[in-house]
Amino acid sequence: PYEINTVLSLTGHLAFVGQGQQQSLTALDPYVNAHGGINGRPVQFAIVDDQSDPRVAVQLVQNLASKHVPLILGPSGTGPCGAVIPSVAQNGPVLYCLSNGAAAPAGSFVFLTLYSGEAGIAVIARNLRERGWKRVAFIATSDATGQDAEKSLDAALARPENKDIQIVTRQHFSPT
Fold first, then answer.
1. CA 24, CA 22: separation in Å to the nearest integer?
2. In 3-state terms, the chain is what percent helix, strand and coil (to 5)?
3. Which end of the chain offers a freer environment for a tag, N or C, measured as fewer CB atoms within 10 Å?
4. 41 DSSP assignment
5. How many Å apart are CA 22 and CA 4, to the nearest integer?
6. How far is CA 40 from the centre of its chain?
7. What confidence tens digit (pLDDT) does each residue in 41-62 have?
8. pLDDT tier at 119 (50, 70, 90 boundaries)?
9. Mode of pairing for the β-strands spanning 71-73 and 135-141
């Protein structure tokens, strides 16, 4: 079989995300194989748990990279994804993060599931501006995902066209 190495958050505070991703891959596996797999080879997802911990994710990805695997799918969350990017960005393997909160360096071996969090927040800021909403309350998790969102919001609101939008309160909560 063609083994696709996958790093998911199956335990820890991101388990609700990683377990859903695992269920999706488990459902995808037989479908892909019933339709010829990859160039006639059956697909098998080799899933490991990063425990929602960036340090564990780095260890897992570095271990896989040392085996010269061509592709790593995951990690699930912003923190684990952001932590592993430096170890694969320049020389690979290809990393397809299942989070959009991290930054994929231009020309690197890193890809994200969606546009960056910063681009998404910029669209939200434009929407606020176009609706005439000038006072905004911000609430986010205290983990890497929330920190990325807050940094992105600050950058979007620093743009001249958004000068009239004010954050009236910032609240943070633990995702655990």
1. 5
2. 45, 25, 35
3. C
4. B
5. 13
6. 30
7. 999 999 999 999 999 999 999 9
8. confident
9. unpaired
Query: Does a cis peptide bond (omega within 30 degrees of 0) precede residue 30?
Result: no
CA distance 106 to 58: 21
Are 88 and 68 contacting, i.e. CB atoms less than 8 angstroms apart?
Answer: no
Burial of 173 (0-12, 13-18, 19+ CB in 10 A): exposed
What is the DSSP-derived secondary structure letter of residue 99?
Answer: -
Query: Per-residue pLDDT tens for 14-50?
Result: 999 999 999 999 999 999 999 999 999 999 999 999 9
Judge if the upstream peptide bond of residue 42 is cis by omega within 30 degrees of 0.
no
For 137-160, what is each residue's pLDDT tens digit? 999 989 888 888 899 899 999 999
Among the listed residues 15, 42, 47, the one whose alpha carbon sits nearest the alpha carbon of residue 30:
42
